[in-house]
Amino acid sequence: MINTKRPPRDTLWAGAIFTLIYAAWAVLVSSNAEFIQNFDKTIINLVCNNDPANVAFAKTFTNLGNTSTILIETIILFIILIVFKQYPYAWFTAGTMIAANGYNWVIKHAVERARPAVHHLVYADGFSFPSGHSVGSAALFGILIVLTILLIKNKFWKTLLIIIWALFPLLIGYTRIFVHVHYPSDVFGGWLEGITFVLLGYSFLYHYYIEVKLMEQRA
User: Fold this and answer.
1) Furthest-apart CA atoms within the chain: distance in Å
2) CA torsion 142→147→152→155, rounded to 10°?
């Protein structure tokens, strides 16, 4: 059930701040700013290597961020929430994922950034910015973090789950750089976009559901 006594605060301002940061990042990427070039080179030098174990891990783990995989995971989460009659959370999940991935398609075709001109270790088509794997995983696991905060009461399990959920998009983003299908700035932009939509989506949930419940309890 929702913690109506002390629900998390509205995230509209945080969402607005992330929107501005994401917009600035997108402008820098689309203009091929020197800062972005240096950022990409620095991260690539830190991340990429030819270690067979790392290559095997990256080529396997990156599949967890595939569009089809994220879609299946989202549908499963949506069904679970519906079964347990957590309808507002189910629509929060569906709405946030649809908005994030739909907007990602628009931005990809607006920026039209080509993928890195090196040998790709896995197949990837379409434009490079932002990373769809990073957007989808940041949005989905960001939603799971929100649901964990709202629904899990035990502090140990809440902390453990939040750490686990946070690691998934970080590792998926890492693999997209490692397998040479995205620039680091694509991945970072994807994380910014995914987090932005989670914050804005939760703000809608907060205003249209949690505050209503609080008002009903006070009536």
Assistant:
1) 64
2) 30
